[in-house]
Write a structure and sequence with these properties.
There is one protein chain. The radius of gyration is 17 Å and the shape is globular. The mean pLDDT is about 95. The protein is α/β, with parallel strands linked by helices. A six-stranded parallel beta sheet has the order 3-2-1-4-5-6, with helices on both faces.
């Protein structure tokens, strides 16, 4: 795969890209049984839908509230009612498991002198907890939250946060996301984009076009010359 050129910084989406959003439900499989998979999927679906709908309505609430609201919907929809389960799942969401390749990829990027950051819907508290829980402290120059923009992805002002953080032009930043809509929007904004298409999804019918498509982040260091 042909490398990208001129990359000075690598910026990552968090949920689904660096961290497995299904891991909270999976770690509660003893309580959820065969509903663990459906709960994880519906929880994530409603979580994203609520971010988009709130952005369109101009009624922002932070990602912790949105995540809780989405979980409440999913639990009710699937008729899951177990004492203490909601609180357990919300706390587990603060320590989602990183994908296996993530620590090694970040070490390679840092060793090559590239700047790194997270750019996420998550609140600062949520992102700090994720990074600490995964033992990834010191692997990022910045943890950028949409709370700084007051609106969710894919609003252009969110991607602008990465440019402002590093003082770099869009073409000097490689943005990585597993979410197709996010990858396409970042491309339309002007970032170089590596779509980490973990689920093997078809291409989006949206403005923009990711520069490269990979199934995990393992190939990223070679793509950016690290």
């Amino acid at each position: 795969m042909r490398p990208l050129t001129g990359v000075k910084a690598c910026v990552f989406d968090a949920y689904g890209t660096l961290f497995d959003t299904a891991s909270a439900a999976r770690r509660s499989a003893g309580l959820l049984g065969d509903k663990a998979g459906p709960l994880a999927a519906l929880w994530r679906e409603k979580q994203l839908a609520y971010t988009w709908l709130r952005a369109v309505q101009g009624r922002h609430a932070d990602f912790w509230q949105v995540t809780g609201d989405a979980l409440d919907f999913a639990l009710e929809a699937l008729a899951i009612d177990r004492p203490g389960l909601r609180d357990r799942l919300m706390q587990l969401y603060l320590t989602l498991e990183p994908y296996p390749e993530v620590p090694g990829v970040l070490r390679r990027l840092r060793a090559a002198g590239l700047k790194t950051a997270i750019l996420s819907n998550g609140t600062p508290r949520m992102l700090e907890a994720l990074v600490a829980g995964a033992g990834l402290q010191g692997q990022f120059d910045a943890l950028l939250s949409v709370e700084q923009a007051g609106v969710y992805k894919p609003h252009a002002s969110v991607y602008q946060l990465a440019l402002d953080a590093f003082g770099l032009p869009a073409e000097a930043i490689a943005f990585q996301s597993s979410n197709g809509w996010d990858a396409y929007a970042a491309s339309a904004f002007g970032l170089q984009v590596v779509w980490c298409n973990r689920g093997g999804q078809p291409r989006e019918r949206l403005p923009g076009m990711p520069d490269r498509e990979v199934s995990t982040l393992e190939a990223l260091p070679d793509l950016v010359g690290a």
